[in-house]
Amino acid sequence: MSEPPNQAEEHKIVSPEEWIAARKDLLKKEKESTRLRDQLSAERRGLPWVKVGKNYVFDTPGGKVALADLFAGRSQLVIYHFMFGPDWQEGCPSCSFVSDHFDGALPHLAARDVTMAVVSRAPLAKIEAFKQRMGWRFNWVSSNGGDFNADFHVSFTKEEIARGKVNYNYAMQEFPSAEAPGLSVFYKDAAGDVFHTYSTYGRGLEPLVGTYTILDLVPKGRDEDHLEFSMEWVRYHDRYATNEFADANKPYWPEMAGSSSSATCGCGSAEKPA
């Protein structure tokens, strides 16, 4: 593993006037990026929809509920597919990193007719215990025993993994875990019909991570290029000091052999395409 570079040694030191000129040049590109992002968002909202015909059922602290119930009286539902396998002792640290950003957004989303929920295949008792440990408030339900995760391509069978490639992020590709992260969006009309409007995976999940947005502003950036895989540094927010993992085999991480800096773990990826 190589050492990160000394940032101060790599940057030119200039006068304030020169800095302002360089900053204005970059601002032009930032504005172009903002306009492109607005265009992509409009195209995303313009995608065709698929009516959800299957009766998905989830385990919740209040009993079993259907997908339509997760809307909680609103017309739009965002589901984060959290990597937490049935046999795991705790959820994926990278998904935990992503989920640390959810709670503060919940009331603001609700004000715009959006409900957010999290779904994993782990049994509800494991989910509840881990949620309590992490101090989260968002609604987190279990899809254990159902087809929801498989149908949205975020869980894979042993047979699929044995074949070497799985259907993830709209392509057949190698993946280091039986569980994968993702986000899916649904709409419920006045008649109660539910429609799937959007799903994203891999680096498409990065807009959820405000920490990365801030890191992209600082001189060292994400500072991940020297790591075995991009999110190797991430720990549970209560474990940075102790570096403890309940799952000794770390099923949410790629096998570490030091052979590839582009290896991925669940939510974290060095892949270039979104």
Structure description:
Helices cover 26% and strands 18% of the residues. It has helices spanning 7-10, 16-45, 93-99, 106-110, 124-134, 148-151, 158-162, 210-215, and strands at 50-51, 57-60, 63-66, 76-81, 114-120, 139-142, 166-168, 171-173, 182-188, 194-201. The strands form three sheets. It has a six-stranded mixed sheet. The longest helix has 30 residues, at 16-45. It starts with 6 loop residues before the first helix and ends in a 59-residue tail after the last helix. Residues 257-265 and 269-274 have low confidence and may be disordered.
Task: Output the keywords.
274 residues, alpha+beta, two-stranded antiparallel ribbon, 10 strands, 26% helix
Outline of the structure:
The protein is of the alpha+beta class and 274 residues long. The chain has helices spanning 7-10, 16-45, 93-99, 106-110, 124-134, 148-151, 158-162, 210-215, and strands at 50-51, 57-60, 63-66, 76-81, 114-120, 139-142, 166-168, 171-173, 182-188, 194-201.
